[in-house]
Design brief:
This protein is 75% helix and 0% strand. It is built from 31 helices and no strands. Helix 14 runs antiparallel to helix 23. The longest helix has 53 residues. It is a multi-pass membrane protein.
Amino acid sequence: MSRQAPSNNTVDPSLARMTEDAVKQKAVGSHEKRELVGDDEYKHATASITNKNALLENPLQGISLERLESMGRAFAREKGLGEYEDEFAKGAQVAQDPLAFESLTILNDEDRNVLRREVTHKWDHPWQLYFLTICCSMAAAVQGMDESVTNGANLFWPQQFGIDTAVRDNDQWILGFINGAPYLCCGLLSCWLTSPLNNWLGRRGTIFWTAAISAATCIWMACVNSKWHLFAARFILGFGIGPKSATVPVYAAETAPPIIRGALVMQWQVWTAFGIMVGTATSLMFFKVGDPSSANITGLNWRLMLGSAALPAFFVMAQVFFCPESPRWLIGRGRYVEAYNSLCRLRHTKLQAARDLFMINALLEEEASLVTGKAAIVELFSVPRNRRAAVASGTVMFMQQFCGINVIAYYSATIFREAGFDDITALGATLGFGALNFVMAGPAVWTIDTFGRRNLLLSTFPLMSIFLLMAGMAFFIPEGPGRTAVVALGVYLHCMAYSPGEGPVPFTYSAEAFPLYVRDVGMSYATAVTWIFNFVVAFTFPRLLSAFTPQGAFGWYAAWNAMGTVLVFFLVPETKGLTLEELDSVFSIPTARHTAYNVAGIGYNFRKYILRQRLPPREPLYAWEGAKA
């Protein structure tokens, strides 16, 4: 999302005055709530930051319905949409509180029925919204295939290019360096290009060109003639992975109706898992392809594996420009008529499109008013509230890699071969891992909003630690069916614990933890963290497997999962179901205060629920908790 103010957008002076007055009243009304929490830093930080973000939550609060109607009509005339003046008059009133439409006298029965159905039938939307969702899902599948096709190829290309990890320790580093090349590029370069690429090309253009890079480099990898040639191709692949991983979830969020936004954004994780499964199936498909005697081709099977990931990328390229562009991006460039037409394709009625366009524009005006002239990356780490969000997001992104899941995604065929499987059976077992990853990611669409981000992580990290330790210790069993069964069971159980927890949480958490005005750079930072540590995992594991043995390698990542439980407990507050104002309250409280409160809660919960003692309710940590009690 761009932080650039619309070039031809002037904030309505009356809107600015009225929203400012409303926020002042809100700040006075919440004085007692802030006193409940105490802490000088919270008082000072929240007084300024929360008030700013309260406007971002709803910049139309406190404005009379009559004023909203006149603002909607003026907006339509000013932006070249005068023929829809009545729709914008209605839409402006509805935008202030989308669930209070029943009491609006400006609406007729047909309008109310449309808005009522939006709530009662939340999955009833135009087919073009679902066409866009399919496009985003295909882009996620490209991502998954880019990550997983190397799994089967690793069984063949190292020998062809003279890499012998069993004999030379240095070759283990080379293997990891080549496999991790795309993620090195993502962490150091390509993730940081997300914002400028989106500014220049738009969401669709960025997705198109990153898919084109993915397709071209997959074909390039299929044609390489040396290990360093393969490294170069895989490094450039990173330019197709990094910006796409940050853009697609944002594109889905900006086009989806609010009531199903979380579910559509979550499709990124579900269909990345699907791509991982398809990549493994492709490796199995080409496993026994021999080199043709009539052509001078060596290693046709692994070349087809690496090249196969180009196919879904071509589908994305062919599809994406038939989807509507992000209305938010179009408004940011003053293209209001196009933005309205885009929303009309994504909503059932012109009233719904007018409501959403008016609200997006109001949010962008407030967002532009928060620009201080400082670089966004400076504000990300200099403002305590933002810095704590960055620490929490960085923690879950780091642990997404060091929980060990991508060790299995990239090297599971090698791991299963170490456990006693032959090559083809190892790939078959890997397909089972990919299928479980996909199937178990589906329920995360509901569990992430039911159990909460923090609770999911605190309950699944210990399980992942136990199951990885189980898989590692199974290598002490003498070689045979018993060992292979226990190793496979441990890997599968680890995957089942990962998919509803550390799988979907990091991207969802990062997308909501940052305030709107630094969200672009916050997401760039978060995705850079996950990809740079993805590189570290891919780079180090071949050597780790040799030096630590499988038992030590699995034990290493089991220990990190145990550490992940501790890190989440101390550094990651809950964000489920909170408004922007409530999130500001959460991240404006110092980490030490969070820690002390949560540590005290261990003893409190033990006494209350285990010893069954009658205890008074704990004093709430957040002001808004006291208000809701």
